[in-house]
Design goal:
Layout: H1 3-30, H2 33-71, H3 74-90, H4 94-107, H5 112-124, H6 128-142, H7 145-164, H8 170-181, H9 186-202, H10 211-225, H11 231-240, E1 247-251, H12 255-268, H13 272-299, H14 305-310, H15 313-324, E2 334-338, E3 342-348, E4 351-355, E5 367-373, E6 377-378, E7 381-382, E8 384-390, E9 400-413, E10 418-432, E11 435-442, E12 450-453
Antiparallel strand pairs: 1-3, 2-5, 3-4, 5-8, 6-7, 8-9, 9-10, 10-11, 11-12
Helix pairs in contact: 3-4, 3-5, 4-5, 5-6, 6-7, 7-8, 7-9, 8-9, 8-10, 9-11, 10-11, 10-12, 12-13
Amino acid sequence: MSGADNELEHKKKKKKSSSAKNKMKKKGKKMSAAERKRRRRRSRRRIVILEWTLVACGVLMLAGAGGYVIWNLPSLKLSRELSAGMEYTQEESYDAAIEAYENALKIDSTSVEAYRCMAGAYLDMEEEARAKQVLFDGWENTQDEGLLEYYCTVILNEAVDEINRDAINPGTIEKIADVLEQNALKEEAAELLDTACSRWLEGADTTEFDFRSYEQIMNRLISLSHAAGMENVRDLVSRFGWLGAEELKVPMEYVDTYLAVLENANALSETAERSEMIACLHKIKEVQAEFEGLFREFDAGNYEAAKDFLVKDSYLQIRDAFIHGTMEYWEGATYIPVSREYVTIKWKDGKCSFAFPDYDDNENTAGIITVWGNEMLDNGVQRSSITYEPAKEGDNYYPHTEYIISYMCSNVQKERSFDYEMNYHFETRVLTEEGMTTTMIGDWGGPYQWQKTY
């Protein structure tokens, strides 16, 4: 196609386009003003509807989000869990109730009501130990005095129940002391403590007394008595700080224990009776210390050790005190046993005395030493003697061996004469069901030693 043809074609298209525009202009001129106004109003209404639709959707979205937030507010969630727990408790669905209270505490670990309700559920289940633990944990976490008082009330109720059932034990007293240590319900606890101590001591077996528990209880009471406002506990320590039984069996390992209790109580309030008992216990310790070394030697079979012991001033004073009736506290006459297992303390007319069990009375003896406290003169000279009986072999009395060692003035057979002089005798007696065999060694260890068996 030539250039002239192209130009002609372009002119035709331009003319055609101009003709279309002119037709549109003519058509627009024919649309009335009312029609144009109606169209504009319709268009505006569509816009308003759209706007309101968007606003409504926005409001609904906000309302839904707000409802979700309100539903999940911690305070409302806590309230729902507590309400659920209470309903479960009323229905006796205790496991579900406790789970609800645990959920409540996960929401708010300081919820006093959750701790209180959970403890109540455990009490309904008769699980007092768990209830007490919940209340104590709640008090520690919240420091709420109401929870502490609830905790102490549960403890005191347990103690009252044990007292009413005549089932008092050291644990009963320990529970009440726990309450006093918390400084809560002091008046009620102190009164109950007095009752519990009285009942426990009244029912105690003085032949098999529980000194370990007694020591623990008294140490706690003495500690409490030093706290402010505990005057009633100090009075309690004074009254129960000694055991005024007519006879009291005290294992030797608890002599120091009992002595410490008495001395601590006397430091608070000194009494004549307690001071008398303290002096008696010190005498027991003195006697044990005197014979301790000799027991060790005899247990090892070294009877030669008795030679030095029999002439010691301290032993001669013991012997002479029994002979002349001047021995203080230690009870006995003629043959007075010393043992290491226990001692019996006696109380009569405001006076204290003690005695050790002899071989027959002490079933589990580890050995008995017997002091000869009788007047036995040889050529006008007082004899110094002791007997030793070793530990029993089994439960039977037989065979029963006694070793008797004496320092005495005796007739010593010399080469050409008999002379009285101080020397040792060693006698062994073996007792069986058939009879007794005695072996006597005169001038034991001396140059004129002799032996005879009969």
